[in-house]
Amino acid sequence: MEKMEQIQLENVTFNVPEVLSCISKYQEHVRDIVNSNYVDFLSINRDMLDDLKSLETDIKELIASTSQLTVDKSNVAWNDLRNYQRDLEEGIRGYKIARKLLSIHDLFESLNLSGNGYEKTAHILTKIKTMLDELDDPVLEELHFFQGLILRHETEYDKLLNDLDVTFNKLVQLQQRSFQNTKSVTIRIHKDENLLYQVVVTQLKTEHNFESVCQFLLENVFAPVIVKPVSLICDEKSNEQSVLIQLSYQLSVGEDLRPGYKTVLSNVMQIFYNLSNMNIVVSDDECLFKVLARQMKKRLCSLLMEQCLDRDIPDTIEGMKESSMVKDVCEFNAFLKTTNFVDGENDDLLEEYANSIETIHQKKLCDNVLDTAVQIMKHESHEMVLIEDHEYQFVGSTSARLSSCMVTRTVVDLKKFLDKVLAEAFANGGAADRFIQTIATILERYMVDVPMANEKLLFKIPQQSALFRNDCTYLNYWLQKNDDKLKDHSSFATISEALKACGEDIFQHQLNTQRTQMMQALNGFKLSIHLVELGTEQQRAVRQCVRQFELLKNVWQTVLPESVYKQSLSGLVDQFLREIMKRIQNLEDITTAIGNGLVLLIDIITETLPNLFKEPSEIHQLVKQWTKLLQLRQILCGSLVEITELWAEGKGPLTMCFSAEEIKHMVRALFQNTKQRQACIASIV
């Protein structure tokens, strides 16, 4: 192509025709080039592209020259000149587009050159991608040919990724086969380091996701090695061309067959050592192991800690003293760092865990202590143990007379166990607080678990509720006895009160049940004005209540502390007597037959109830209504004269238990209205 001749335009008035002529000629020339060569873009050759580049330079110089002309802008020549400038600029735009498309085409052609490795291919495709993304001219997106280039790039890029995957899978073969009861896993790493380097480096540059490799290693290799006994073969010497890792294991394995942590760590280290044959080092800061670690290290460490190490932390003090787990875990963590299996975030996870092993050991130890205590609580022991007074009474008790009682064998065993735990706490200072807190938890569990597990027995059987009350008091005594060792822990003061309340609540519920049962029996003790004489119903009701008291005596007297027994049973008897006497005193008319019958019933009561206590005579002090019952018998049997003498103008013995109105009411009910009755009533004031 000829060079455009240089024109000196010193005076635009005389040279405009020449400029217009040159522009017109140039415009026609450009149109000829476009029409003949750009119908099919790929027909443009490299020489033509160079000529177009030269033409572009000439056009720019021409535009620059014409832009400096001084001319009347209303002149027709000037307008033509501006139009020619725009045409030339459009020509340059077309040249640039053609040059870019041809450059991209040349890059695609270079992909087919022999000797291109994966890295170079990836580099070329990256360069093509960059050029396709740089849209210097918006018209590019509208070109059908340009869209074809984008599609071709995607095809070539996918082909590269597929080739990389295929080659990597040939170099690092991951295989697993499942049988009916077993599974076999084989990893074969070929020793073609140069090719593996190219593949891995290119995969990393293309941001390849190695999740499938990580998932295979976790699910088929590391997880089984951690939780199951495996047959592991690692061989990197017998075959010069490859390294072999092979393991097989049962699909279903009992918990008792799980391997110990030392075996697990040894196997994992052996596997990593052989996997290092595929650990391509890309740079000082990057390698394949680091890539894998970023995706799987946290999961691997969690699996190792939760499924292996947690289980093997000793749960006894002796076992912990002999264990080297802390040292072993730290050495394993250092090994992972040495092999570059690091992710920058979880590299100290195992070391932190190692530092917490002592704390976890203490927790396991205390959990075992709690489990043992709970198992003791669950023993259905109906055996009773005699506890002497010095083993039972509260420290600082003001009771003048101490007494023995019965507790269950279960609570005695629990108390002995608590003694042992407390001794361990002070023998191992580091775990003392945790041990003591466990003691608190044991006592809290006792107040919940035992009542729930024995609910029916405690609420229905009087002896069981009495034993539970004693058991709670016995444990409360144990707390007070060890107050000097536990006083720094404020929770025990609350637990002590709660224990006492728990036992008392159960026993009080039993007392309320006995009161209800007694009142139901007394429903048969009906007295009314229509009654002519007492029948068997009233006597049956009284005897039923007496029998109830005698049964309680049989199950409570040797079980409860003497003071508790006396207070509990005397309270029931007192209520019984009050109810009997209230019904008798409410009668408006008491015939001789009814009176004699009532005396007989009172005689039954006075003959039997004193025997509820070791010292029958104590009933006078223990049962408040006892004296009143005896005096009521005197009233029922006495004459008007005797009653008057017993009242003695308000100074006699009857005044201790009866009011004047009560005596008057009884006189009216027992005696007919005569002058003697009137005189007697008049004297009672």
Automatic annotation (TrEMBL):
Residues 403-519 form the Centromere/kinetochore protein zw10 C-terminal domain. Residues 176-377 form the Centromere/kinetochore protein zw10 middle domain. GO terms for biological process: cell division; endoplasmic reticulum to Golgi vesicle-mediated transport; meiotic cell cycle; mitotic spindle assembly checkpoint signaling. It is found in: Chromosome, Centromere, Kinetochore; Cytoplasm; Nucleus. Its main location: nucleus. Keywords: Cell cycle, Cell division, Centromere, Chromosome, Cytoplasm, Kinetochore, Meiosis, Mitosis, Nucleus. This is Centromere/kinetochore protein zw10. It comes from Anopheles gambiae (African malaria mosquito). The lineage of its organism: Eukaryota, Metazoa, Ecdysozoa, Arthropoda, Hexapoda.
